Amino acid sequence: MDETRQLIEGARELGVALPPDKAASLLRLLDELAQWNRSFNLTAITAREKMITHHLLDSLSIHADVQGQAVADVGTGAGFPGLPLALVDPGRHYTLVDSNNKKVRFVAHAARTLGLSNVTPLHARVETLRPAAPFDTVVARAFAALPEILERVAPLCGPATRVVAMKGKRPDEEIAALPAGWRLIEMRSLQIPGLADARSIVVLGRTPPP
Questions:
Q1: Domain residues of the chain, as ranges?
Q2: Residues 58-75, buried b or exposed e (16+ Cβ, 10 A)?
Q3: d(C-alpha 195, C-alpha 58), whole Å
Q4: Helix-helix angle 101-114:20-40, to 10 degrees
Q5: Which of 87, 94, 46 is nearest to 69 (CA)?
Q6: What are the tens digits of pLDDT across the range 30-74?
Q7: What CA–CA distance (Å, rounded) separates 98 from 41?
Q8: At residue 44, what are phi and psi to the nearest 5 degrees?
Q9: What is the spatial distance between Cα 56 and Cα 70, in angstroms, rounded to a whole number?
Q10: Which H or E run includes 122?
Q11: What fold characterizes domain 64-206?
Q12: Does the predicted TM-score (pTM) go above 0.85?
């Protein structure tokens, strides 16, 4: 199976309709990542097929969990899941945050190259941010344990913000240790096409006032 077909069919299994031009742009993102990776060591995943599954399809797996217009991807690394989501969601604005300057430089380069005007790269530590308005959705992929994630992203969140955490196996112990003021909205296991590793999605929100 060629890469474009693998990507389109994998996205379809995840409930994402991916036109051929969008698939081509996502594959170009991998081209840019592979080129930069030779000099800057942005990702440990270098096999092309694994880049498609572990970076692109894994990122698209939370598409249905994103809500609202303003989305923050905290600890974005080389731009995942933020860049693929921004490409398939041109109507939403994505702020991609990381403390590693070389990774943020790549995110900025990739956004320019792909013409993603809905992406703002931000070199910062998440816990230092004080946005003018809360984000509608905050996504975190392999960022930290859930209690630490919530502590660090709290300044980005309002009463209606959803925090979407991408995890490996079900983090039941982390769920049991959620800090006061937060609640579990949904947790589900997920199968990424072509990826055998366990994946789960955890959606969290503020506890409504009494």
A1: 64-206
A2: bbbbbbebbeeebbbbbb
A3: 9
A4: 150
A5: 94
A6: 999 999 998 888 888 888 899 999 999 999 999 999 999 999 999
A7: 15
A8: -85, -10
A9: 21
A10: strand 119-123
A11: Rossmann fold (3.40.50)
A12: yes
